[in-house]
């Protein structure tokens, strides 16, 4: 399937960067015209792309930075990943995603970034990269997904028995992480009965501030009773897939922050690639096969300057009970601010790009160098 033009604002270019940890990585960049600028690296989440940063890249570049947003492993126009369901899942483990980011910095001709920014699933990648290589990533902005610290080292004592999948099933619900780990999830979404553009539009709307029922509150425990308070895009009805979940919430019109052109581009890219590359990131989390990789960093904290930005209407900041408090209290020792942006849900840099840009620049401009 041929590649369609990317509807980019003037001043942002698209190019391919080879030799990035086995990938040829597609990136968008702004501020590239002037050599020697400090690097800002922006990491997207699911089901997003580098394109998700389109509204903030030029304003950040206008402040004197080389701004780069890649399509991450398994996404968009980046090639070299095995995106099959039965392919090599190990390539999506957290340490290899960190290698991707380190490799990209070097392939771009930089030795370090000025700041690393991650949204949604890009947030834990940014957090772990900073945890492991603070010399390359001396400042980090986490968005929409709090980082509560690295995995605790297991001492051989079996953890308390809990089967959250069974607990949720007993009340007619299921967690989207486990649904996204099934072989059916990719086909459910790419073959959505409402059509892929309508599915994309419904999914984004349902998790945005435009859906008036997004009024998040903290959860007190990792239990079925508490998790059931989450909207169905996180804790789904047991016998519905994600296309069925979002279909009733698809708005009749496009929104100013997600236009028909935007939806058309997202839908075209996911029609070409499918969602499985991104879904494999969830499978790493639910399988726990590679947790031991990160247990080597147990007790380590992020000690570089950090900031957290999310939408005030984003349930995502509470879906892991206590994570926000742990991030702000112990996991990040130089947290400069936790900002919840009014008028934004989960897609804060797309829903409220001006506020997001201002918060990022207020943080970035206080950093040395």
Structure description:
The chain has 369 residues and is of the alpha/beta class. 34% of the residues lie in helices and 15% in strands. It contains 15 helices and ten strands. The chain has helices at 54-61, 94-107, 122-132, 164-169, 176-180, 185-190, 196-206, 224-227, 242-246, 260-273, 276-287, 291-295, 323-331, 348-351, 353-364, and strands at 13-20, 23-30, 39-43, 66-70, 115-119, 140-143, 173-175, 235-237, 306-311, 335-341. The strands form two sheets. It has an eight-stranded mixed beta sheet, sandwiched between helices. Strand 9, helix 13 (323-331) and strand 10 form a beta-alpha-beta unit. The radius of gyration is 19 Å and the shape is globular. The model has no long low-confidence stretch (mean pLDDT 96).
Compact overview of the structure:
This protein has 369 residues and is of the alpha/beta class.
Oligomer: single chain
Main β sheet profile: 8 strands, mixed
Topology pattern, helix = H, strand = E:
EEEHEHEHEHEHHHHEHHHHEHEHH
Main structural class:
alpha/beta
Spatial sequence of strands, sheet with the most strands: 1-2-4-3-5-6-9-10
The fraction of residues assigned to DSSP E strands is 5-15%
* Separate helix tally: 15
Question: Residue share in helices?
Answer: 25-40%
Dominant shape: globular
Low-confidence stretches: none
Distance between the termini: 44 Å
Average pLDDT level: 96
Taking all Cα atoms into account, the compactness measure Rg is 19 Å
Count of individual beta strands: 10
């Amino acid at each position: 399937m041929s590649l369609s033009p990317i509807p980019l604002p003037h001043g942002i270019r698209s190019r391919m960067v080879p030799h990035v940890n086995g990938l040829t990585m597609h990136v968008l960049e702004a501020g590239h015209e002037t050599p020697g600028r400090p690097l800002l690296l922006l990491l997207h989440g699911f089901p997003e792309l580098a394109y998700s940063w389109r509204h903030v890249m030029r304003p950040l570049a206008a402040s004197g930075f080389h701004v780069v947003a890649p399509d991450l492993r398994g996404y968009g126009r980046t090639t070299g990943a095995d995106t099959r369901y039965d392919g090599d899942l190990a390539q999506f483990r957290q340490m290899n995603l960190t290698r991707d980011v380190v490799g990209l910095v070097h392939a771009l001709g930089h030795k370090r970034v000025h700041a690393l920014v991650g949204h949604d699933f890009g947030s834990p990648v940014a957090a772990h990269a900073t945890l492991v290589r603070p010399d390359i990533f001396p400042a980090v902005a986490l968005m929409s997904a709090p980082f509560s610290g690295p995995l605790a080292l297991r001492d051989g004592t079996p953890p308390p028995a809990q089967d959250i999948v069974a607990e949720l099933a007993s009340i007619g619900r299921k967690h989207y992480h486990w649904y996204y780990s099934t072989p059916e999830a990719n086909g459910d979404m790419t073959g959505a009965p409402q059509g892929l553009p309508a599915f994309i539009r419904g999914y984004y709307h349902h998790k945005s501030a435009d859906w008036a029922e997004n009024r998040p509150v903290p959860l007190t425990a990792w239990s079925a009773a508490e998790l059931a308070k989450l909207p169905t895009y996180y804790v789904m009805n047991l016998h519905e897939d994600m296309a069925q979940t979002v279909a009733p919430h698809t708005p009749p019109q496009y929104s100013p922050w997600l236009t028909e052109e935007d939806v058309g581009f997202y839908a075209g890219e996911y029609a070409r690639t499918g969602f499985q590359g991104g879904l494999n990131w969830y499978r790493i989390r639910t399988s726990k096969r590679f947790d031991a990789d990160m247990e080597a960093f147990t007790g380590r904290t992020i000690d570089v300057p950090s900031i957290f930005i999310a939408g005030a209407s984003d349930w995502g900041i509470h879906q892991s009970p206590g994570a926000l408090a742990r991030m702000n209290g112990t996991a990040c020792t130089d947290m400069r601010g936790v900002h919840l942006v009014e008028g934004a849900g989960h897609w804060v840099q797309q829903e409220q790009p001006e506020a997001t840009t201002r918060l990022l620049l207020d943080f970035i401009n206080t950093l040395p160098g």
